[in-house]
Specification:
The protein contains four helices and 47 strands. It is mainly β. The strands form 16 sheets. Strands 12-13-14-22-21 form a five-stranded mixed β-barrel. It has a four-stranded mixed beta sheet with strand order 29-26-24-34, with no helix packed on it.
Length: about 750
Amino acid sequence: MKKLGCLASLACAAFTMTSALAAPATFTPALAPPVAPVPAGFDITGFIQEATLDTTGAICNPKHPRLAGGTVTLNGQKIIIPCNTILQMPAATMPWADLFNKTPAATAIVPAGQTGMALTDLVGNVDATGVPYSTPGLLSMKMTSATSATLQTRVNASLPSYEIHVQGNVVNGRYIAGLVFVSQQSLNAGQGRISCIDYATGEMQVGGTPIDPTDGKACPNPVPVGVARVRLSDSVGRFGKRHAAIGKCLGDPQCVEEAGFDARFMPDTENPTVHATTGYPMCIPRMNPFSAGVDPLCPQSNRPIAPACNSYASTTGIAPFTPQTFGYCTTFVMDFPNAPQPAGLTCPGPGCLTDPTRQAPLEIGDMIVFQGTLKADANGMYVSAHTVAANLGIYTQPNAKPAYVYVEEVLAGTAALPVAGLAQETTERVRFVGFTTDPTNLVDLYALDQDPVTGQVSERLLSTQSPMATAQLGRFRSPANNGGIFLPPTRNYRAVSRTMCAEQPTGPFTNCLLEGNGTTASNTFANGLVAGQFTLPNFEFIFPENLIFGQALVPNNFQDLPFLFCGSGPLDGPGSGSAVVEQLDPAPWGAPMQSPIYSSNLCPNAKPVSAPLVFPKVTGAADTVVINNATWDNKNGMGKINITATSSVSPASAGMFMTATITNSWMTAGAPGSVDNPIVAQLVQVSNTPTDPGTCPTSAPCWNLSAPGFIIDPGVAPFPPSLVPPTTIVVRSSRGGSATVTDAAIRQIACVSTLKFTCL
């Protein structure tokens, strides 16, 4: 029989169609992009899955074991923690190794080499018979009455997990941390009214039905559903009874032992982190003031009862407060310090005037916001708080020492020089928001520069603000266009009320020198707090951001933070004799990033970011360099220099670059930017084809320099340091050409005058 061909067969045709459909077209994959030309910045937040301490020198070789590095894993990504890393805890700082060396003791047993904070840590606990058991980071829930009494002391040291926020750069494929922030949950907060205070343990119950403290009733136990337990994580007894791990009170009746107490998360003991909204320091009495007597450090007389709620005198121009008719005063002015007390009274005590040199007690009915670490004991879960803010407006008398200050927010821009021609957005301003108890006096805002060897701190004035210039009495904040010498960024910042000046300023340019410089007893009030100021670390630095989506990510410019690039002096403070914190190692920066302009003066022995640019040997005629634009922009008191320069060599040769030398002819000899100590900044290489005709006016290869104001006149008292413009700019090409502009050719944009800085 003759075979039928496919053309004559419907079945064959169907088969052919099916076969065609079964073989779809395919795409050719793109080649993997090349490695980014710059370290890519990263900003990661997550649970601590695993934390390690490098004790073998595999990562880096510290000069002291407490400065060792390690690794942390979060969201599946392993990040290197460099040697010399200083962690920022909620209200304290410590090196990475201290997370491992200062784990909770007594009943909470953490194996060597663990923090008790990572999900993979095995947290051992001991029952009342001394028998240990282990749980891999699990929550130890409330004990029931059916549970053996020998197990009542079980606690949890890894409850429920801990958060870490790491900012860094990917350098040669390795994730390396620059800044590290550790908490149990940074944005965790509770809020409510205090319903009961257990004065024996210093524990507050928040929420629920208020318990009258005068009728002898104890706080409910078990705690009603929906009621929070809050204790202060105060290991020195600054704001109430001292708290410690089991066996660590050593017979001190003013100490409370807690299984699983963790001093790593304690409050700030120099600044009022337990405070009224206005910054007035608050406390929990160490004894029941309604039955056991007066706590002289936390007197009940500092919470007057309505209607005896003082307002400011009419001569101050401050409107009287709304009268209260019942309850504890919630908005009032403390009496003058050392005011004559009523005759026949022993003060502090019942009937006495308020005393602004002492803290004010928290009371049942006060509305508070609390932040801390979740813990558990035999009675259930509680918050070991490092910060408590009470919704109270407690003020102090005008110009009467002491006054108190609290900073609610600070953030700082880091600026950044361009890297590899990547378009980026930067800022260098510093923003403060805070409160003071004396709204009639100005508040000076400082950056705290720290010597990288000695650790000595010097104040750099940023701006001065008025606490009466906002809608809320006592609040101060930096305006959107605030001016000042903001760079370089610092780890710590400070706000100082002029109430506490050693001498009142005689003019708008006189700095307020904090009485006793904040280090002597002459300026210590309220059970050891440094009055009139609030010093805090910055939790939020503003790093550069890409302006063009899809380009390589710009790096975080950690090298522009002196405390990371140079170090910050002795670990335990100036004069402590402890190990000196040096430059991060391994460094979270790399080529083509450049060393900061301050490094040659502040820390000349620090390892540079990358090898300095070397001008190649030029043969033949040099190119012609033209400075198209040189502008010193000080419209916001920031002193920013912008330069545009072109070369006659077109197209630009591979690796071609330019540098700019910037000087001021009348600066003090030896000062950065003076003629005998010029500042050399490096311009970045750009493509042959200008992308912005507005800044590159010709078709010739164009280079741009944008550098923050770095020529600082130290000034002559009583004038503070100020930014000054360059008087000479020299731009030099790696092809041998150069160009110079001086005074008249350097365009200056007028600044906005402030109390502290004048337009130049």
